[in-house]
Amino acid sequence: MLRIEQLTKTFGRNTAVDAATVAVDKPMMIGIIGRSGAGKSTLLRMLNRLTDHTSGRVSCEGREVTALRGAEKRAWQADCAMIFQQFNLVPRMDVVSNVLHGTLNRRSTLATLFNLFPAADIHRAIDILDRLGIAEHAPKRAEALSGGQQQRVAIARALMQDPKIILADEPIASLDPMNAQIVMDALRRIHEEDGRTVIANLHTLDTARRYCDRVIGMLHGRIVFDGTPEQLTTGVARDIYGADAGFSEAATSTAIEPVETAPERAVHGAKAIV
């Protein structure tokens, strides 16, 4: 399915990612862990083609991703959606229009300029928001939502692209524990229910152990661990984060209330093309 072969990125004399090699043969949820500066974000950005690689290659289902240009590159970026730590929403735009921006790659410049969307796309956006428990916020400005709600809007925008792969770059780093669990639960459900591959950079071991089928550890740009959550022992974690890092075998979990079900569907701001 997805092949990363000797993928390398250098910035001058600094090597951000050093000969990374990963094979993903079936849809799964993968967590990438490591210290700040380990190369996790650069790796994801190369997969999405937001950052060009220095050497190596990425391929998916027979398509050499690292060789794509123009429209083919944009089509890949629709197939491989990106979710960011800081949400990257348009704050003053209503929620449903932010979600509909996931369709920009297949819309005309005129439709984009006047914020025109097919009615079918609007209904689909609302369905996705409903699935994520935030349909009642559809007419609100994105800036009026909490951080956790904004991240779910960002996930909904990614789902509007109908991607094969979702890349999440530290999706819960700026969230409180309750919203972090809601977001991770949503990503896990998307993997299980849709059969999509989810690759997430994560900043806690417990999150990787709890949600991921596979964990990749990076240190100084190199992949130093690739295995199951059960294989991610305290000793391995110290190898990834450094011997001075403090870890315990017990996972710390917080009791969270279940995600509420969205009630009525309201859409304002986005204008339908009938």
TrEMBL record:
The keyword Phosphoprotein does not apply. Keywords: ATP-binding, Cell membrane, Membrane, Nucleotide-binding, Translocase, Transport. SUPFAM superfamilies: P-loop containing nucleoside triphosphate hydrolases (SSF52540). The keyword Membrane applies. Signal peptide: none annotated. Pfam families: ABC_tran (PF00005). Residues 2-245 form the ABC transporter domain. GO terms for cellular component: membrane. GO terms for molecular function: ABC-type phosphonate transporter activity; ATP binding; ATP hydrolysis activity. This is Phosphonate ABC transporter, ATP-binding protein. It comes from Pseudooceanicola batsensis (strain ATCC BAA-863 / DSM 15984 / KCTC 12145 / HTCC2597).
